[in-house]
Amino acid sequence: MAAEEPVGPGVGEAGSGEAATALRQAGAAEGSITEIGGGAVGIRAGKRWEVLAWTPRGAASPKGITGASSEKAGGTLITGPADHANAVALRALIPSLRPRLLGGATSAGVGDRLGIATPGHVAAFRANPGIVPVLAQQSARELARTGRTFRDVVDAATFGALAAGWREGFGADADHLKTIADIDAGIDAGCTMFTADPVELVPHLPADAPQAAIDGAFAAVPWAALEDDPAAFMTRYPARLDLDCGPLELPPAALHAAAARFGAAVVQVAKMYRHLAAARPAGSFEFEVAVDEIEHRTTPIDHVYLATELHRLGARWESFAPRFVGDFEKGIDYVGDKAEFAADVEIHAAIARHLGDYKLSVHSGSDKFSIYDAVAKATRGRVHLKTSGTSYLVALQTIAAADPELMRRIWRVALDAYTTARASYHVSATAAGAPSPEEASPQVLAGLLDDPHTREILHVTYGAVLHGDGASGAGDPRLGDDLRAAVWTRREAYWAALEVHIGRHLRPFSGAGGGPVTKGATR
Ligand SMILES: [Zn+2]
Q1: Which end of the chain has fewer CB atoms at under 10 Å, N or C?
Q2: What architecture (CATH level 2) is domain 97-205+269-327+332-388+504-509?
Q3: From ligand 1's centre to the CA of 17, what distance in Å?
C-alpha cells in the first residue's frame, strides 16, 4: 500500500497570526503577506523587491526561499533577493503566482519593459473587472533590445503580482516568436501563451500587387512542406462562407493570392505549433497566430486561408491577430477611416466565430482609444488586447516632470537611435524639426510625450535607452540603470498613472464577457 500523501501546508492570505505580524514588522507589502503552514512569505520594496519569509523558532523555512537569515519576533526571518531562484520558490509555494491559461474569457496583455509596472497593471485590472490579465508579455524583439529574457519577464510579474496581492492569476505570453528556439525559451520560462509570427516569410504582396508578382510567389509556394498540391488546394474551398454577418465569397483568384502571400508562413507556424505541442502536455498552453506586423492588411480571404490550412496541418490556436485595415502605429491613436475599421473587425470576428470560435487579438493596442468600442462590439467579448510600449511611455511621463535632466539624456539617445530603430517598426514620425536635446526646456522635454511624432520616437527607441544597444554609437551606458532607478524611486506615482492609463484601455472591454473557447479552429 502506498504511503499516504502528507497534507500540504495551508496557503492563505494574511491573517492576524504571529507570522503575518512578524512580516508586517519587517515591512512586507500588506497584500503580499501569505501564510504558509505556521510561517508566512511576503515581499517588500527596498532598493528593489526583497523576498521575505518568516517561520517560528524550530520550524522549517518555506521551501526554496533563500537569503540572509536573522532573528525576528521570536522566529527566523529570511530576507532574499528578487532573483530567479526565489521567483521559482514563490511560484511553488503560492499557486496563484504560476502563469495560468486565459481560456475563453476576454483578456488583455500588458507589456512591461522595465520590470516595474506590474502593481500598476494590477490596479488597472482590479478597477476593470472581467478581463483576464497577461502580466508577463514581451516579444522576442523587445527582449533582444532590452537584454532581458523570458525568465526575467515572468519573474518580474511574479514579484509584482505578489506585492500587489493579486490572487486571480495571470497569463505569460512569449510574444512575436519567430523561431523554434524562441518557443523553447518561452517554455523554459514557464510561459503559458505562445504567439507565433511568420512575418519574415511573407512576400510583399499588397492588394494592388501586379498579377505577375502574385503568380511568381504562388509558383514558389512550398507545396511538399504544406503536405498539399495546387490542384487539391484549389478544390478545398467552398464558393462562399455563410458568416453570421453575411456571405463571404471566396473567388479562386483571391485564394490564389492568399496562398502566394501566406503559403510559406503556414509551414513555419505549423512547425512551431507542432514543436510546442510535442514539448508541452495538451491543455497546458495557448497558442496565437499573429500576422499583424505584415506590411499589407490581412484580407478576410487571407484569414480564411490561414485558418483553413493551419487547421489542416493540425495546429490549434486560441487567438488570431490580423493586420487590420488602416494604420496601427505604435503608441498613438488609430489613423484611418473608423467606419472602414469597424466593418473590417466585424468580418474578421465573424470569420473567427465561423472557423473555430477563437478570439481576435488586437495588437499595437496602445492608445487606440477611438476604436475599442468597435472592437468590443464586433468580437462580443471574444477578444485579446495587447499593449506593450505604452507602459514604458507612462514611465517616461512619470520621470519627465520630476527629473528633466534624465529626460534630456533619454531624448538625446532616443533621437540618435531613431533612424536605426524606425526601420523595423510601423511608425511615420520624422525627426525633422524635433526639439534639440541640448536646448529644450523642462516644459518642452515633458511635452515630448504629448506630441504624436516625438511620442513615437520615444516609443520605438527603448532599446537604445534601456540597453544602450549601440545603434547610434552615442554612449550613455548608465542610462538604462538610471532610468530604472528613477522610476523605482517614483514607483507609487508610476503605478497610479498606470492604473489610470491602462484602465482607459481596459474599460471598453470590462464586462464584455467571452465564454469558453472551442479549442482551435474547427469547421
Ligand atoms: Zn503584434
Answers
A1: N
A2: Alpha-Beta Barrel (3.20)
A3: 47
